[in-house]
Amino acid sequence: MRRRVVFLGDSFVQGVGDPEHRGWAGRVLQAAGGDVTGFNLGVRRNTSDDVLRRCWPEVDARVVPDEDNRIVVSFGSNDMVAENGAVRVAAERCAANLASLLDGSAHRGIPVLVVGPPPVADAGEAHLRRTARLAAVMAELCAARNVPFVATTEALAADPVWTSEALAGDGAHPGAGGYQRLAELVLAGAWPGWLGG
């Protein structure tokens, strides 16, 4: 059966900053091999509110009955950005948005893989702490629904390739090496079993 994988999320999903224009989504697709069609629906600056709002119109237009349709979703880094003294989207609402997306996918019978929010290198320790706490909440939510979750926040924050490339660029997005590191986390995590299953 042919597989169709929709990658839904923010600029990290889009692969902004990668001179090879593959990002981590392109790299995990390349590693999948076989008959897999990928759709990259990452949009820069999107929060979980934005992703949830456009999710089903965009996903429903790309799934095909009687094929193996799947969704990979990743958001949260933008939610935790502080603007005008408050985060863009509160952690509780971000978690509720994820729950709504997972409920919608379960209703449609579409398996989901959640990739945790990557760190923003130049956003400071407070942003990193908020993002790490959000990632833990997301992981618990996924575990309660038997949805695979790939943790990325703390591993990438400690990764010199991710950090140095992001700081050498726009402060948030890495280059090819950083996206390769994120792809490796996904490939070493739930991706192989999830896609194969």
General description of the model:
The protein has 197 residues and is of the alpha/beta class. The strands form two sheets. A five-stranded parallel β-sheet has the order 2-1-3-6-7, sandwiched between helices. Strand 6, helix 5 and strand 7 form a beta-alpha-beta unit. Helix 2 packs across helix 8. It is globular and about 45 Å long. It starts with a strand and ends with a helix.
Outline:
The chain is an alpha/beta fold and 197 residues long.
Keywords:
197 residues; alpha/beta; Rossmann fold; 5-stranded parallel sheet; two-stranded antiparallel sheet; 9 helices; 7 strands
**Percent of residues in β-strands:** 15-25%
Distance between the termini: 12 Å
CATH topology: Rossmann fold
| Strand-pairing-aware structural class | alpha/beta
Largest sheet, in brief, is: 5 strands, parallel
Q: Show unreliable segments.
A: none
Strand order across the largest sheet: 2-1-3-6-7
How confident overall, as mean pLDDT? 97
Large-scale geometry: globular
Helix/strand order: EHHEHEEEHEHEHHHH
